[in-house]
From TrEMBL:
TM region positions: 6-25
CDD domains, sorted: CYP86A (cd11064)
Membrane topology: Single-pass membrane protein
Gene Ontology cellular-component annotations: membrane
Reported cofactor(s): heme
Primary site of residence: membrane
Keywords: Heme, Iron, Membrane, Metal-binding, Oxidoreductase, Transmembrane, Transmembrane helix
Record family assignment: Belongs to the cytochrome P450 family.
Subcellular location: Membrane
Protein name (database record): Cytochrome P450
């Protein structure tokens, strides 16, 4: 038996591999002829690995091109060893997943086990009762009173004490700034104050390396490599052997969690706890288990840090390239604010809100989001979903559907979101056509907070400064881990407006 096996395996491989390779090479050469819909060809065992690898540096754009070339805006990607993932930009499918059949589409085991080491059971990584409980307690952090406090105490302070002085100095000294980095520092300080009541002081003129921010970033980068790995079990083997990126991940996650726990211990010493951050809310509600509150706080930092900074980075690039829109924004800022914009005034800046929404349509901070099917199902467009299949809706592709946005979908045109009678009013789109903040029961908890924060930053910066890209002629490259970024940063010069 043994002998027969040893003899027959190489014989089998010699017989099967060469014809398979010939088939793959021939199909690859002819793919442009036989494949008008851009659907990737799939091969036994290998799936579509070759074309996946070919497009690994432009995954989001590549998937978007395929989705938008299909008649029902949906396709299935075949990864090696039979792993499948459905991608959709079909609004009816999105509504089905996120709302009408919400209970059939969970974060799921793949998502949870991949992120567990970093996020534990935090809201971002939880399903069922645990998710419901965290959502309920956290939602108080986002009521009108808390939002007003956030804008007036946290955002305004960071703006006037840190961001504006840095921009003033850059304008005076003609320094080149990486505006993406500056905005990330801004939102990192903001989110730490909301989540912990802690100020990491990451946005300082010296642009310091705040240890917490650096290890948080590194852990996030490594964990997203797990997600993007084409053969998922490889990271598990590396983790079991404690080698390479998995070893680095273990070390950086430990540092992040230790840091968070230290803050929690200090907070517990406060008596009584009077702060209004999220951590205090859980602690005063009697939920003092250190691991549990650490999980919650880390999820919030992940959800709120790079999202608003990504949105603002692309926004500033777009308005520089559309001076007529920038002028309209300046007009609105001047009309709706006295000298310094406060909560109510910022809230009513509809033209700016439209410009931000339009910017996120083209460059969504979260380009796609993935769920897992609990049971077999059929989507509204007829796509069959097997139990356990991963299914991603794709806001980046959804912002590029001609049938939805018109032939001028590639144009940055805030007017799509506005109606004008005596003055502008904002016309929102249904959240399944524009799921930039997700939709349904798990819609982003921070959506309103994010808009307020972004509008406040826009009002504060645009009123006083012009943000001028150093490389004016080039369109920056959109890249993404969990959240999107401008590849290589956003190098700018700052000009102070004389008529401010
Ligand atoms: C422009 C800014 C933002 C965008 C585009 C955005 C987008 C999203 C998206 C797409 C999700 C769903 C992710 C998924 O489950 O796959 C989400 C969830 C969430 N976001 Fe945001 N977000 C933004 C800002 C914020 C901010 C500032 C906060 C908090 C301060 C926040 C808190 C959350 C939370 C807690 C969840 C999880 C909700 C749940 O699962 O029930 N977000 N966000």
């Amino acid at each position: 038996m043994q002998l027969e096996f040893q003899f027959s395996t190489p014989l089998f491989l010699c017989t099967i591999i060469p014809p398979l390779l010939i088939l793959i090479l021939t199909r690859l050469r002819n793919s442009h002829v036989s494949n008008p819909t851009k659907l990737p060809t799939s091969y036994p065992i290998f799936g579509s690995i070759f074309i996946i690898l070919k497009n690994k540096d432009r995954r989001v754009q590549w998937i978007s091109e395929i989705i938008t070339s299909t008649p029902n805006l949906t396709f299935t990607l075949h990864r090696p060893f039979g792993y499948r993932q459905i991608f959709t930009a079909n609004a009816a499918n999105v509504q089905h997943m996120l709302k009408s059949h919400f209970h059939n589409y969970h974060k799921g085991d793949t998502f949870r086990t991949t992120l567990q080491d970093f996020l534990g059971d935090g809201i971002f990584n939880a399903d069922g009762e645990n998710w419901k409980f965290q959502r309920q307690v956290s939602s108080h952090q986002f009521n009108t009173k808390s939002l007003r406090k956030f804008v007036e105490h946290v955002v305004d302070k960071e703006l006037s004490d840190r961001l504006i002085p840095i921009l003033k100095s850059a304008a005076a000294n003609k320094t080149v700034l990486d505006f993406q980095d500056i905005l990330q520092r801004f939102t990192f300080d903001n989110i730490c104050k909301i989540a912990f009541g802690y100020d990491p002081a990451y946005l300082l003129p010296s642009l310091p390396e705040a240890k917490f921010a650096v290890v948080f970033d590194y852990a996030l980068k490594l964990i997203s490599e797990r997600f993007n790995s084409n053969i998922p079990f490889i990271w598990k083997i590396k983790r079991a052997l404690d080698i390479g990126s998995e070893r680095d991940l273990k070390i950086s996650v430990k540092e992040v969690r230790e840091f968070a726990k230290q803050i929690i211990r200090e907070k517990k010493q406060e008596s009584p706890i009077e702060s209004v951050d999220l951590l205090s809310r859980f602690l005063t509600g009697g939920h003092s288990d250190e691991d549990f509150v650490t999980d919650i706080v880390i999820s919030f930092i992940l959800a709120g840090r790079d999202t608003t900074s990504a949105a603002l980075t692309w926004f500033f690039w777009l308005i520089y390239n559309h001076p007529e829109i920038e002028n309209e924004i300046i007009k609105e800022i001047k009309e709706s604010t006295s000298s310094e914009p406060v909560y109510d005034e910022v809230k009513n800046m509809v033209y700016t809100q439209a410009s931000l929404s339009e910017s996120m349509r083209l460059y969504p901070p979260v380009p796609l989001s993935t769920k897992s099917a609990v049971n077999d199902d059929v989507l509204p467009d007829g796509t069959v979903v097997r139990k356990g299949t991963r299914i991603s809706y794709h806001p980046y592709a959804m912002g590029r559907v001609e049938g939805v946005w018109g032939a001028d979908w590639a144009e940055f045109r805030p007017g799509r979101w506005l109606e004008r009678a005596e003055k502008w009013s904002f016309v929102g789109r249904d959240p399944f056509t524009y799921p930039v903040f997700q939709a349904g029961p798990r819609v982003c908890l921070g959506k309103e907070m994010a808009y307020l924060q972004m509008k406040r930053v826009v009002a504060g910066v645009v009123r006083q400064f012009r943000v001028v890209p150093v490389e004016e002629s080039l369109e920056p490259v959109y890249v993404s881990d969990f959240t999107s970024k401008m590849k290589g940063g956003f190098k700018v010069m700052i000009e102070e407006r004389i008529d401010a």
